[in-house]
Design brief:
This protein is α/β, with parallel strands linked by helices and 76 residues long. It contains one helix and five strands, in the order ββββαβ. The chain has a five-stranded mixed β-sheet with strand order 1-5-2-3-4, covered by helices on one side.
């Protein structure tokens, strides 16, 4: 089972997966990356699926969720 935590700058250990959600026009987009500068942009549901796939076979580390201003998330 995935563990999701609110991302705070500098709080995620190196190699952690970060899913950032932000407004792009009238849509919300997702951008996933490891705790490093590079990443990829996609739809929010695709971002959650991709983070789960990147965690397959790894220990149950948390996935950090970063929200841009005005983006809300229900962790339930």
């Amino acid at each position: 089972m995935e563990i999701y935590r609110r991302y705070r700058h500098g709080a995620a250990p190196p190699g952690s997966i970060i899913a950032k959600f932000y407004h792009s026009g009238d849509q919300i987009r997702g951008f996933i990356r490891k705790a490093a500068p590079a990443g990829e942009e996609m739809e929010p549901d695709d971002a959650f699926r991709a983070t789960r796939k990147k965690m397959v076979g790894e220990l149950a580390r948390p996935i950090y969720v970063e929200l841009s201003q005005g983006v809300q998330w229900n962790s339930a």
